[in-house]
Amino acid sequence: MNVGSLLTLTPTINFAHRSRVDAHVTWGPRTIPDWQFFYVIEGEAELLYNQKQQRIRAGECVLFGPDSPNQLNTLTEALFYSIHFHWSHPSPVPVHPAYRIRESSFEDLSCQAPAYHMDIPEHGSIVIPPWFDLPELEQIFLRIVKEYQLEQPGYAFVLRALLMELIASLMRHVLDQSFTRKASKIESALEIMRIHPEQPWTVEQLANLCGYHPIHFTKLFKEEMGRTPKHYLISERMKRAKQMLLGELTLSDIAEQLNYTSIHYFSNQFKKETGLSPSEFRQQGSRTFH
């Protein structure tokens, strides 16, 4: 099941608190109407969800949704953050989920939840992890809870921004792990395109660098990067173009250095990738840095 694109999410916090409870406190079995982050600061807890028992230690977090019953238990005295949210909602104003939580039976805990994915431009559809070990997120959870409790002017929009920061940090972590596991298969091709994006690399040349047949290389590249080698090369070329546009080179010089046959072709491709013409991008950069 897909929750949407990282670029178009409009997430909403419904409830956020930081709490310390005794050992053997239980919530559930129940089915929640939204999504929940449960992050343990101290102690240990356990989640029964999606036909699994997941122990949650300090610095670890679980994420689960509305599709399957769950039960949370504290195994020791525990200090934790609990955040209820929607991935996308027209309004950023919190709507407390308590009145929509449904009781479930222990038999219901055997239900299997679907796998969830998020679309990330240039990377494709990425699986959202139900458990992760990311202690650095604690500061974002703390800021969310404080903002939720104080309800200062504009707090709903600040909560949305903080939740977006949290989601982006989580998905970066997922991508970093995926890149570490997989990049070695095509690393030579990625590196040469990053270093020399101006070169008209062919699939055959890139495949040879990695020791693959071009057809297999293209398939592997799309699986790992979510796009073709050609589109990746264009993206890297546009990154280089942006850097050059912040300097003093003319558009003609930039197009020539990036091996475009004409300024017109360069400008069309730049606008297609960025939404701005090279001149518009240069003007924005000038306003930003001066």
UniProtKB/TrEMBL annotation:
Keyword tRNA processing carried by entry: no
Positions of transmembrane segments: none
Tree of life domain: Bacteria
Location of the HTH araC/xylS-type domain: 187-284
Entry-linked SMART domains: HTH_ARAC
SUPFAM superfamilies listed in its UniProt record: Homeodomain-like (SSF46689), Regulatory protein AraC (SSF51215)
Keywords from the named record: DNA-binding, Transcription, Transcription regulation
The keyword Transcription regulation appears for this protein: yes
The protein's name in its UniProt record: AraC family transcriptional regulator
Species per Swiss-Prot/TrEMBL record: Paenibacillus baimaensis
